[in-house]
Each structure stands twice: as C-alpha cells, then as structure tokens.
Amino acid sequence: MKKKTIWTVATIMGLSFLALLYLQIKYIDEMVSMKKDQFDESVNRSLDQVSRNLELNETLRFLESDVNAAKKRRMTSDTAVVSALGDDLSQGGGYPSFESKVTARKPSSVPKLLIVRNDKNTQSQTNRSMQEIVRNRYVYQKALLDQVVMSILYSASEKPLEERVNFKMLDQELKVELRNNGVDIPFHFTVETQEGREVYRCPEYDETGEEYTYQQVLYRNDPANKTGIVKIHFPLMNKYIFSSIKFMIPSIVFTIILLITFVFTIVVVFRQKRFSEIKNDFINNMTHELKTPISSISLASQMLNDDSLAKSPALMKHIGTAIQEESKRLKFLVDRVLQMSMFDKHDAIFKKKDLDINEMMENVAHTFTLRVEHTGGKIMTDVGAVDSTICVDETHFSNVIFNLLDNAIKYKKPDQPVNLTLSTWNDGDKVCMSVKDDGMGIKKENLKKIFEKFYRVHTGNVHDVKGFGLGLAYVKNIVELHKGEIKVESEYGKGTKFTISLPFIKD
Q: pTM above 0.85?
C-alpha cells in the first residue's frame, strides 16, 4: 500500500474518532449543565418555601398567643359580670336593665309585616341595606385584623434573629422541602444577619464544596435591617453531579482505548513499512557487498581452470591469496548478519575477562594506522584513564572499537584525509573512551536513527559507502550488554565523536 493511501485512511479514521470523542464530551457537558440548572432551581424553590413557612409559622404562633390572651381576658370579664348579677338578684333588684328592656318590648310578639311597615322599607331595600351593613362590617373587621397582624409582626421583628428562628425546626424544614423537590444529599447551613454576623452554624459544618452555596433572605417583609440570611451548601455536590453522568464514562473510556489502539496500529504500520524499506535497502546492499567477493573468487577459480594460462608459483600464490582474502571478507559479512540475528534471539554468550582499556585502545590504533595513513591522515591516542581495568569480552569489545573506526574512515570527507583521536579518561566510578573524527559529520535528524538496524546515512548514492547498516546497532547492543552507555555528538561538516562509558573494576 502506498504511503499516501495509508495517510489518507489514517487521517479519516483519526478525525472520525476525535469527532466521536468530542460529541460524547459535549453531550456530557450538556448533561452536567442541565443537571446543575435543575439542582439550582430545586434548591432555590426549596429555600423560598422554607422562608415562607418560617414567616407563616411565626405569624400563626403570635396570633395563637394573642387569641389565647384575649380568651383569658374575656373569661376574666365574664366572671366579673356574673358576680355583679348575683349581687343584684340577692338584693331583690330583679333582672338587669338590658334584659328588662327586651322583656318589656317583646319583639317576638310584633308581626313581621308590621316591622317592615314601621321601617318604611321594601324587602329589596332591606336586603341591600343588610348587604351594605355586612360589607362595612367586613371591611372594618379586615382593617382591624390587618392592624392587629401588623402590630404583632412589628413587635416580632424587634426580637433578635437568634430568638425568632428555631434552628432545629429550620433544619427539619430544609430537609423536608429539599426532599420534596428531589434533592436528597447531605447539606450544611448557616444563618447570618444582614450585617454578616453569624448567629448559627451546623455542628458538622464542612468547608468542602463551598463553591456550591445558595442563600435565601429570611423575613423578607420585615425592615431591611431586621431580615436574616440562610446560607446552605452541599459538600457532595460533585459526586451528585457525577452520579448522573457516570453511565457515559465507559463509552468515553472505550472510545479513548480505540483511539489509542488505532494510533498505535498506524504507528506500527508506518514502522513496518519503514522496516520493509530498510530491509529492501539492506538486501540490495547485501547483494552488492556479496557480489564483489563472490566475483573475485569466481574469477580466481576460472584462472585456475584455464589451461591456456601458465601456472607459475607466483601466480598460484597470488590467486590463493586473493581467494583467501575474499573468503575472509565473505565470512566477515555473513558473520555480522548472523551476530545481529543472535542478539535478536538473546543467544549471545560472552567470555569476559579483565582487560586494560588503555592497552586495548593502543593496539586498535596500531592496527588501523595503515588504513588511516592511506587516506593521508593520522591516528592519535590520548589514554588518560587511571582506573582503566574493565571486564569485557575481548573479541566483541574489540569489534566495537573497530566498527567505530571503520565508520569514521567510510564517512570521511571526499578526497580529504581523515584524522582520528582515541581517548580514555575516568568519570566517577566509570571509565570513558571516545573515538573522534573530522569527517562528514551527521545531520541532527539522523542522530536518533543511526543505532537502528539496517539504517544507513545516505550520501546521495546508496552504494557509495560499503556496509549493511548493522555496525552501529551491533556496537550499541554490545555496550548495553556490558552494562555500559554510548553517546554520540556530531556537527554536520565538522566531524563526529562517539563516547562509551563502562564501570571499571576497583582494586
């Protein structure tokens, strides 16, 4: 599949997942907002009803008290009247004056028609007159009652707020009204004056959740300076809101998991595609690398089989040497591929022993002197490590240094000599070694990839530098298996420096 096609499919699928996730989050946000609005409305309605009930209860309480006081006064007055009548009868004075007048006139003996005629009113006029009398009496009684109620409320508002409010009843009222409006979660409340003086606070008051605080004015019809404020807050408001949307959480989680899985799949697809391209490049390079020694061996064998060619001892020695060198070269290329395969399977076996890193660097430098001088350059050593004994596999670790030097020579500047510097020094409990060159250098975008298998820094022609792209991957594996660390510093056009640090053996 083409890279462009993969990118198109990945973009469409990615945008679809993101759109789905956005819609789910938007839906949850709308649900939370709606639930919060419903909660606010329920709480405010409950507080308003509690405030009304508080005023109503206080009014009823004072009216009941006033009525009871009036009854007591009337009973006291009736007792006095009865006592006075008893005194009159006992003195022989007969009936009271009011009863004597009623008895004398005897209104029951007067005919009703006569009463009408004597008043000189028709029946309709009488009805209207009676309605007017009742209406006037109602207006008078209502005004009188309003005056009494206002007097009672005014006298009640003069009391301190803490004496007017029964906080235990207020707590019960809040619970009942909130439950009636569908709010059944714990709450805390305080009561304050208009000046902000707190007159009551719940014993179990918790500061948590104070951002969800509601308030309501108490005794709203009183003078402004006599009113109070009840503040109520819900410490478990977040849990209450979350409980209404928790059924949506699994769908979001699964969507995110699918999105992550999709991204991971796309990354794997691109990685596999890149590996496929690198392996194809590797096969091409391997074919090119193997072709040279095979061609040389084939040419040597043809010379041996050519009867027309005189077989002098010098020629035979030359042909034998060529076959031997090309066979070694062929074996080295095959072994490198097999070594990387061995590391992938974790079958590497090391024969470690104590070695002096200073001595190893000197020996390697001596071996590479001819190759470096052949380019017109020179190789220098600066072995300054005092604690220089390390425990490594001599063969593999020598190959590590050989690979670094080989890369430095391969990637030298065209038609220019290469100068190499091998150094050792101590850094804490580690011994460090470096291979520095003044070659082509490596671009920043390639630095993170140079230790990957089959990766080769291209120089414009895939085959202008020999190799499979396995050298630095082999180096990194060997260093890490010896519990070491390798770093690279490079500036394109100025050179590269590889630094390896390993724990040294203390005496």
A: no
